[in-house]
Prior knowledge:
It is a single chain. The protein is mainly α. The protein has two domains: 2-74, Orthogonal Bundle (Tetracycline Repressor, domain 2); 76-226, Tetracycline Repressor, domain 2 (Orthogonal Bundle). The chain has helices at residues 2-12, 15-40, 46-53, 57-63, 67-74, 76-91, 95-112, 114-121, 129-148, 160-175, 182-192, 209-226. Helix 7 runs parallel beside helix 10 (160-175) and helix 7 (95-112) runs antiparallel to helix 11. This is TetR family transcriptional regulator. GO terms for molecular function: DNA-binding transcription factor activity; transcription cis-regulatory region binding. Keywords: DNA-binding, Transcription, Transcription regulation. Residues 45-64 bind DNA.
Amino acid sequence: MRMTEESQASRQAPRAPLRRDAERNRERIVAAARELYAEHGLGVGFNEVAHRAGVGVGTVYRRFADRAELLDAALEVPLQDVLAVADDATAAPRAWDGLVLLVTHMTDLLVENMGVRDAALGGHDELLPDVARSVADVADALFVRAHEEGDLRDGATSQDVPMILWMVTELAKHATDVAPDAYRRYATILLDGLRAGPDTGPLPGALEIDDVRAISRSWADWSARARPRTA
């Protein structure tokens, strides 16, 4: 019996470093994915994550069953920031103030992290559906209240919010080396275009939710194709 225990101990002893190595590899994979998603959006694949992490792609698959699991690990903190902004916007005493907070603070978050942009705006809503749905629900509620309070022009809808955020964050990508804060100016201009005023006329036809989803997916796919590839 003692020999059996000793032989078992001798076989098990070398496994501890493997477990530590596995945990280190997982941390490297999550860190690499977090960087790549922030830089390029959610179109990044396991091969690129493995290359950045310095591990084999098989190691990524062993640690994470699918892309959704890796996304949950890599984007947990920034997505909590998105939901916190949504909560703050909902709590604003006047809906227009909540809408301004939602767009301006969300823009700052999305400019810093292209992966969060894709998640929050539904560019890959098959991967993180709850995030896009939560943001959309908050925008819907704010628009209903803001119309009731008389602060939104006729024809403005909550479907305008993701389009504004796509436009402004795309501008930010191209203005980074020239005028990194320029996006804030245009976010303000676009927001003012939603506000009711004595001289504002009716807006052209609004987008439907399916239109917004299709545009968001197309925009996210285009961004993924346009980005530099890992060598």
